[in-house]
Every structure is written in C-alpha cells, then in structure tokens.
Amino acid sequence: MFGAKVEPDFIGYSAGISACEKGEQWQRALALLSEMREAKLEPRVISYSAGISACEKGEQWQQALALIDAMAEAQVEPDVISCNGAISACAKGKQWQGALALLSAMREAKLEPNVIVTVVGSARATRATSGSGLWR
C-alpha cells in the first residue's frame, strides 16, 4: 500500500496551479500547466485562469497574454476570470494596448468585464497615453 504510485489528475494539477498562484510562484504555475499537457491532461479554463492570475501577481503580462493565446490554440474559451486577470496583468505592466484589446475582445465575445477591471484599465490606459498624443 505504501509503495503505490499515485498519478496526478486534472484536479491535482489544477490545485497545484492554484496554490502556486496564491504563493506568487508564476514560474511553477506555468511549469505545472506544461506538465499537465505532457501528461495528456488538457487544462481547462480554471487551470488557465489560475495560471493567468499567477502571472498577474508576478507582473508577467507577456506570460498572461501567452496563456490567453494558448487557450485559443487549445480551443478553450476564456471566461471573465481569465480575461480580467490578463487585463490586470497588462495594466500593471503599463501595456494599455493589450488591456484595451482584451477589453474589446471580451465585448465581442459577450463577456462583461467587472467594473474594477474596466475602471482601472481605462484609467491606466489614459495615464499611460496622456503625453503621447494618442487620445487626441
């Protein structure tokens, strides 16, 4: 009984990714997502969302956007949580173009961003471009 090998499953991987997100270990969260795919377990929206949230907390906007792209490639529909996380990551990284593109994509997909993401994203985009002439 003690020598039995336990194979991780979807729930185990997703719990691990979520724990990494809470522990601000974005690199490990991405590694677990990769391991999950290697184990022929397809990540679902909850797994991707936890990975995106980990990237957001680690201020890794590029990685958050890469996970949104990976979702599309895997034919996993992003939900409000995954999009809000990626938008927040872009906002923290002063990547207003990415944040606004995601807001637009959400509206096209009939997903309503939460009020906080909309206000914060818009405010940060405005501040980021105020001296650039882009909002004139």
TrEMBL record:
Cross-referenced InterPro entries: PPR_rpt, TPR-like_helical_dom_sf
Keywords, in A-Z order: Repeat
PROSITE patterns: PPR (PS51375), PROKAR_LIPOPROTEIN (PS51257)
Repeat (PPR) residue spans along the chain: 9-43, 79-113
Highest taxon, organism lineage: Eukaryota
Matches recorded under Pfam families: PPR_3 (PF13812)
Record-linked PANTHER family: OS03G0856100 PROTEIN, OS12G0638900 PROTEIN
Name used for this protein in its record: Pentacotripeptide-repeat region of PRORP domain-containing protein
Organism from which the protein derives: Prorocentrum cordatum
Organismal lineage: Eukaryota, Sar, Alveolata, Dinophyceae, Prorocentrales
